Amino acid sequence: MRKNHYKTLTLIFIIFIINSSLIFTIKADNQSNFKNDDEIDEIQTQSDIYEEIYGDIIIGQSFRPDLGNLTRIELLLSKKGNVKFNITVGIREQIAGQDFINISIPPTKITTNQQWIQINFTNIVLNTEGKAYYIVCKTSKGDQNNSYRWYASATDTYPKGIQYYTDNSGETWSQNTSRDLCFITHGKEIIKDTRLEITYVTGKSGKTINVGIENTGEADIKNIEVYLGIEIGLLLKLNTHYNDTIELLKAGKLGGLIFPNIFVLRPIAFGNIKVTVLADGIDAINKTYSAFFLPFYIYISK
Fold first, then answer.
1. How far apart (Å, rounded) are the C-alpha atoms in residues 136 and 63?
2. What domains appear along the chain, each with residue ranges and CATH number?
3. Which one-letter DSSP state was computed for residue 178?
4. What separation in angstroms does the CA of 288 have from each of 133, 138, 160, 227, 230?
5. Is 55 within 8 Å of 158 (Cβ atoms)?
């Protein structure tokens, strides 16, 4: 009796493994089966109608991403009839252009019931400044009785995109601004390198100090705080402080600040100038320079 029980458990376990292999391509709801570190970017899941894909009929949907690294997309698809040919899912920059990436899905991965089909990508970098991209589904075979279906909303539920249609293999395209196809895009934010460097600290006549800050990273940086600390004397130290802000420093650019009328109590003195640079996402930068203060000029060692 116990042996039969073990056999039953073994059979259930084998069936579970076989069925689980489908999870990597097909999922039955809108929640991801993957524990990736990506996140949902663009999404339209309302399903009221469908568009058929076969022969010369190609269907497309535009979207505008907010996340720069596209990791995967999901489409709500099904098939109709005796489908024995693949469907190709591609992404392109122009609806009438060529796919810059595409994946062919066999009919065995798509059922006659609508299901979310997941397509994974690797390191697809997209422009996130309002540029449109196009998801396109096509096949070269089939007819009205043997086709794929891509489900859609009957209203304009995705304001950042448009549904597209062609019945001549892409020679001409039509828009349907009152519908949107069902899709989900997943992605990651591209973390750009952010770095600042103090390139120069110089003294000038009139007791003025110039400070140069260079953005040597890949991202623009806002609200860069620059602090000057003036320290005079050895035993009896006299300290004064100044600060200013660079509101925006674009990547690869050099910015400068002028600190005029530096006050030093003694007419002639040796001291130090400490420069501190602070900005969000960047470790504080601290540099100290030796200086010789004269009544109308400041000499700073390099």
1. 11
2. 24-188 (2.60.120), 196-300 (2.60.40.10)
3. T
4. 50, 64, 51, 12, 10
5. no
By the 10 Å C-beta count (0-12 exposed, 13-18 middle, 19+ buried), 70 is classed as buried
Which pTM was predicted?
A: 0.62
- Collapsing DSSP states into helix, strand and coil, what is residue 135? strand
Distance CA 75, CA 43 (A): 10
How far is Cα 216 from Cα 4, in angstroms, rounded to an integer?
70
Query: What is the predicted pLDDT for the residue at 238?
Result: 67
Q: Give residue-wise pLDDT tens across range 66-88.
A: 999 999 999 999 999 999 999 99
Closest listed residue to residue 240, CA positions, set 263, 258, 210:
263
The answer to whether the beta carbons of residues 56 and 169 sit under 8 Å apart is yes
pLDDT score, position 21: 29
Amino acid occupying residue 282: I
CA 264 to chain centre: 50
245 close to 256: Cβ distance less than 8 angstroms: no
Helix (H, G, I), strand (E, B) or coil at 43: strand
Name the 3-class secondary structure at 131: coil
